[in-house]
Amino acid sequence: MASKSKFCGKIETDVEIKASPEQFHDMFSNKPHHVHHTCYDKIQGCDLHEGDWGKVGAVVFWNYVHDGKAKVAKEIVEAIDLEKNAITFRVIEGDLMEEYKSFLIHIQASPNPKGEGSIVHWTLEYERLHDAIAHPETLLQFCVDVSKDIDSHLTKGN
Question: Which of 38, 50, 51, 119 is least buried, going by the fewest C-beta atoms within 10 A?
Answer without folding.
Answer: 50
